[in-house]
C-alpha cells in the first residue's frame, strides 16, 4: 500500500507530526496530488554529500515541476479552476525556492518520506508489538506529559513574574510619592508658623499612611519573590528529571543501538524524536533562565534585605548547569567513521548538534575539528586532564563548518574527505597486537550564545567535544579480519559509561553467539541466521568439545584469547579467523545458496559421514572446511571402488574464493555427474539449475577441431581413476587436477584466433 494512503489514516500526535512536515518549503497539496510520482522516484540514490549529484537533483526538480504543471492543466470545472491556479502557483514557488539548490529539495523530500514511513510503521506495529510497544508508548506518553507539566509551570511563573513586576512598579510609584511628601514637609520650615501648623498635620498623616503601605508592600514583594523562587526550584527539579530521562536513557540507548549497528544490528533509527525532545528542553530551559534573569533585574532595581539574592544566584547557577549539560550532551556523532580505519584511505563522518537550531547557533556557524587520539588520551580527556593539542596521528581535511538545513531543522557538520595520513602507536601491553590497539576520533567545537535581558547582555560560551566509537588503525588489508574482531568484541560487550575503552576479558558463550549471529546475518545480508545446531558446532570448535547438547555450553565462558589470540588445536588460525573466512566466502560467492538452505555449512567430517551413509548413492552435502580458512567442501556417498559392495563418504578438497572466481559453485556441482541428490533427498538440478551459467552461443564450433571438451571434463577424467588422486582419508587431492582444469578453462576463454591459431596455420 502506498505510504501516502497509510499516512492519511494516522491519528492523534502521529497525524500532527505528519502535518508539521509540510509548509511553504513543500506544500502538503503537492504531496497529495503527486503522491504516486513522489514515491516512485529513487531519492535515496542521490548522495546529498556529493556536489556532483546536483545535476540528478536538478532533473528531479524539473520533473516535479512538470508533473505539477501537467496536473494543473488537467483540472476542469469550478473546483478544478481553483486547484489549477493553486498547483501552478506551487510549481512556480518550488522552482523559485530550489532552482539554485536542488539538493535541498531532495533532502526535504527524503526527510518527509522517511518520517512518514516511520510514523506509519510505528502506527502499524502498535497492534503487533504487544507489551514492548505498550511500554515504549507509555514512556513516550510520560515524557510528553512531563513536557506539558513543564509548560504549565513555566506559564505560571511567567504570570507570577509579570504580577511581581506590576506590583514592584506600583511600589516604586508610591515610594516616589513618599519622597515627594517628605520634600513638602521639609519645605514647611520656610513658611510662617501659622501656615506650617495648617498644612503639617495633613502631610504627616499622608506620610504615615504611605510609609505603612510601603512597609506592608515591601513584605508582600519579598514574599512574591520567595514564592517565585520556590516555583522556579520546582520547575528546575522537574527539568533535571526530564533531561536525565532524555539524555541518560533515550539518547544513551540510541548510542547503544548505533554501536550494535556497527556489528550488523538493526539501524539505530532517526534522531527526529530525540531532537524534538531536546529542542523542547532547550526552549523550556531558556524561558526559565530568562525569567530568573528578569527576577534578578527586579531585585537589583529594588533591593529588599532578605535571602532572595542568594536564592537567585543558586537558581541562575543551576539553570546554567542544566543548559550546559544539554548542549554538551547533544553534540553527537550521527554517522560514525569506519571502525576499521586504513591509513591513506578516504573516510567520512557526520556530527550533529541536536539543539543547534533552537539556540540559533547557525547565525554564526561554529567550526568542528577532528583529531585522532589514543585510548590513554581519551581517558585523560574524560578526567578533564589537560590534553589540548595532544593527538596520535595526522588527519587530512579535518576541519568543517556546521551547516543548518532549514527544511529538516538540523545543524550538522559533514566531514566528507578525511584521510588518516599517519598514526603514532603506543607501547603495547603483553600479547596485544597492533590490531587490538584502540583509538578514537575526537570531534571538538566552540560557540557562544548571546541573549539580551533588559539592559543586561549575557553570553554563554560552550566548549564541545565528543568521541567516536573505538577505531582500529590498519596499514594493510591483511590486518582487516583481526581488526574487525577487536571492533566486534568492543561493540558487543562495552558497558555504557565505561572508562575508554574497557571491555570484559571473557563473556558467556550465549552472549558471544548473539554477537556473531548478528554479524553473520549482516555480512551475508540474509534473514537466515545461525541455527542452534550451527551454534553447537561452533561451540564444539571453540571449546574442543564433542557434546551435542546446547545446554552444556550455556554457562561456559569464552575469553578474548580463545576468540582471536590463540590458534585452534592443530590449526594455525584462531576461532574468529576461521569464522570470518566463512562469512567472507558466503558473502562473496554463496549467499543465494545459503539463503535457499542448500548449504548446511557448519557440519564436521564425522557428522557429514553419519548423515550421508543412510542416504542413496550420489547424495551430497556442502560443509565449511575445518582445515582451511574460507573453504567449502562437497561430501557425498558412493561405492568404494576398492571393495565391492561397500560404500563410503568422499570429500573434495575445499573450494575457496580463488576457485569460485573461475567457476561458480552451482556450475561445479553441475559438472560433477556423480552428485545426484542434495541432502536429504532433493535432485540437485531442482536446487541449483537456476544458478547454472547458460550455455555459450556457438562462438567456437569445437567439432571443427575434433576437440570436444567442457571446462571441467578434463578434470573429471582424473576422477574416473581415483587411486592416484585420493589421500589416505578419502579426500581428492586436486592440486594437480585443478591446475589442469583451470588451464583448460582459461584456454577456452581466449579469443579463437589466439587459441587455435597454431592449428589453423
Automatic annotation (TrEMBL):
Q: Identify the stretch annotated as signal peptide in this record.
A: none
Q: Which GO terms describe its biological process?
A: cell surface receptor signaling pathway
Name of the protein in question: Signal transducer and activator of transcription
Q: What taxonomic classification does the UniProt entry list for its organism?
A: Eukaryota, Metazoa, Chordata, Craniata, Vertebrata
UniProt KW keywords: Activator, Cytoplasm, DNA-binding, Nucleus, Phosphoprotein, SH2 domain, Transcription, Transcription regulation
Asked if the record carries the keyword Thylakoid, the reply is: no
Q: Which family does it belong to?
A: Belongs to the transcription factor STAT family.
Q: Quick check: keyword Ribonucleoprotein in the entry?
A: no
Q: List, alphabetically, the GO terms of the cellular component aspect.
A: cytosol; nucleus
Segments spanning the bilayer are none
**SMART domains per record:** SH2, STAT_int
Any single GO molecular-function term of the entry would be: DNA-binding transcription factor activity
Every SH2 domain range: 594-695
**Species in which this protein is naturally found:** Oryzias sinensis
Amino acid at each position: 500500500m502506498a505510504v501516502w494512503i497509510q499516512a492519511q489514516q494516522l491519528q492523534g500526535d502521529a497525524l500532527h507530526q505528519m502535518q508539521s512536515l509540510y509548509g511553504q518549503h513543500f506544500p502538503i497539496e503537492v504531496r497529495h496530488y503527486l503522491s504516486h510520482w513522489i514515491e516512485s522516484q529513487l531519492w535515496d540514490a542521490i548522495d546529498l554529500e556529493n556536489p556532483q549529484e546536483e545535476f540528478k537533483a536538478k532533473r528531479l526538480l524539473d520533473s516535479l515541476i512538470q508533473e505539477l504543471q501537467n496536473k494543473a492543466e488537467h483540472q476542469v470545472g469550478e473546483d478544478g479552476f481553483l486547484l489549477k491556479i493553486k498547483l501552478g502557483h506551487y510549481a512556480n514557488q518550488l522552482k523559485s525556492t530550489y532552482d539554485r539548490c536542488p539538493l535541498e529539495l531532495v533532502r526535504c523530500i527524503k526527510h518527509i518520506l522517511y518520517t512518514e514511513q516511520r510514523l506509519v510503521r510505528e502506527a502499524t506495529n502498535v497492534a503487533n508489538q504487544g507489551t514492548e510497544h505498550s511500554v515504549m508508548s507509555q514512556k513516550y506518553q510520560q515524557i510528553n506529559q512531563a513536557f506539558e507539566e513543564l509548560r504549565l509551570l513555566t506559564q505560571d511563573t511567567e504570570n507570577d513574574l509579570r504580577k511581581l513586576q506590576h506590583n514592584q512598579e506600583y511600589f516604586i510609584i508610591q515610594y516616589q510619592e513618599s519622597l515627594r511628601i517628605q520634600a513638602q514637609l521639609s519645605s514647611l520650615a520656610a513658611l510662617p508658623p501659622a501656615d506650617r501648623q495648617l498644612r503639617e498635620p495633613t502631610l504627616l498623616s499622608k506620610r504615615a499612611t504611605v510609609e505603612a503601605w510601603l512597609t506592608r508592600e515591601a513584605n508582600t514583594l519579598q514574599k512574591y519573590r520567595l514564592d517565585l523562587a520556590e516555583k522556579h526550584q520546582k520547575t528546575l527539579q522537574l527539568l533535571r528529571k526530564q533531561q536525565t530521562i532524555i539524555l541518560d536513557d533515550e539518547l544513551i540507548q540510541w548510542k547503544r543501538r548505533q554501536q550494535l549497528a556497527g556489528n550488523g544490528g538493526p539501524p539505530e533509527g532517526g534522531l527526529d524524536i530525540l531532537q524534538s525532545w531536546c529542542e523542547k528542553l532547550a526552549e523550556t530551559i531558556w524561558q526559565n533562565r530568562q525569567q530568573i534573569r528578569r527576577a534578578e533585574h527586579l531585585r537589583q532595581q529594588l533591593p529588599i534585605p532578605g535571602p532572595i539574592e542568594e536564592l537567585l544566584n543558586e537558581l541562575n547557577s543551576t539553570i546554567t548547569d542544566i543548559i550546559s549539560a544539554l548542549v554538551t550532551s547533544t553534540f553527537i556523532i550521527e554517522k560514525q567513521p569506519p571502525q576499521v580505519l586504513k591509513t591513506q584511505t578516504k573516510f567520512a563522518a557526520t556530527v550533529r548538534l541536536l539543539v543547534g537550531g533552537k539556540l540559533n547557533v547557525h547565525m554564526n556557524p561554529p567550526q568542528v575539528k577532528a583529531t585522532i587520539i589514543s585510548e590513554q588520551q581519551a581517558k585523560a580527556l574524560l578526567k578533564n586532564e589537560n590534553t589540548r593539542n595532544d593527538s596520535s596521528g595526522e588527519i587530512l581535511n579535518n576541519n568543517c563548518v556546521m551547516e543548518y538545513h532549514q527544511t529538516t531543522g538540523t545543524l550538522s557538520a559533514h566531514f566528507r574527505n578525511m584521510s588518516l595520513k599517519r598514526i603514532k602507536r603506543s607501547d603495547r601491553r603483553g600479547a596485544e597486537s597492533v590490531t587490538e590497539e584502540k583509538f578514537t576520533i575526537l570531534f571538538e567545537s566552540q560557540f557562544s550564545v548571546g541573549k539580551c535581558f533588559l539592559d543586561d547582555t549575557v553570553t554563554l560560551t560552550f566548549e564541545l567535544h565528543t568521541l567516536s566509537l573505538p577505531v582500529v588503525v590498519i596499514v594493510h588489508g591483511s590486518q582487516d579480519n583481526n581488526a574487525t574482531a577487536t571492533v566486534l568484541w568492543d561493540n558487543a560487550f562495552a558497558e555504557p559509561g565505561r572508562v575508554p575503552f574497557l571491555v570484559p576479558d571473557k563473556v558467556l558463550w550465549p552472549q558471544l553467539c548473539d554477537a556473531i549471529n548478528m554479524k553473520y546475518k549482516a555480512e551475508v545480508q540474509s534473514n537466515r541466521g545461525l541455527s542452534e545446531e550451527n551454534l553447537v558446532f561452533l561451540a564444539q570448535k571453540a571449546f574442543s568439545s564433542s557434546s551435542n547438547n546446547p545446554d552444556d555450553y550455556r554457562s561456559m565462558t569464552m575469553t578474548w584469547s580463545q576468540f582471536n589470540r590463540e590458534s585452534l588445536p592443530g590449526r594455525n588460525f584462531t576461532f574468529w579467523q576461521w569464522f570470518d573466512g566463512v562469512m567472507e566466502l558466503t558473502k562473496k560467492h554463496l549467499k543465494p545458496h545459503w539463503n535457499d538452505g542448500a548449504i548446511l555449512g557448519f557440519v564436521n567430517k564425522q557428522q557429514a559421514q553419519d548423515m550421508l551413509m543412510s542416504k542413496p548413492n550420489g547424495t551430497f552435502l556442502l560443509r565449511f572446511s575445518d582445515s582451511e580458512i574460507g573453504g567449502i567442501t562437497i561430501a557425498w556417498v558412493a561405492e568404494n571402488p576398492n571393495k565391492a559392495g561397500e560404500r563410503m563418504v568422499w570429500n573434495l578438497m575445499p573450494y575457496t574464493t580463488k576457485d569460485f572466481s573461475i567457476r561458480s559453485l552451482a556450475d561445479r556441482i553441475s559438472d560433477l555427474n556423480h552428485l545426484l541428490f542434495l541432502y536429504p533427498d532433493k535432485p540437485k538440478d531442482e536446487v541449483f539449475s537456476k544458478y547454472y551459467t547458460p550455455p555459450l552461443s556457438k562462438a567456437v564450433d569445437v567439432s571443427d577441431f575434433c576437440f570436444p571438451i567442457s571446462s571441467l571434463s578434463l578434470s573429471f577424467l582424473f576422477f574416473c581413476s581415483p587411486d592416484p588422486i585420493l589421500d589416505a582419508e578419502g579426500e581428492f587431492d586436486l592440486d594437480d587436477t585443478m591446475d589442469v582444469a583451470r588451464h583448460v578453462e582459461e584456454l577456452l576463454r581466449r579469443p579463437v584466433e589466439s587459441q587455435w591459431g597454431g592449428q589453423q596455420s
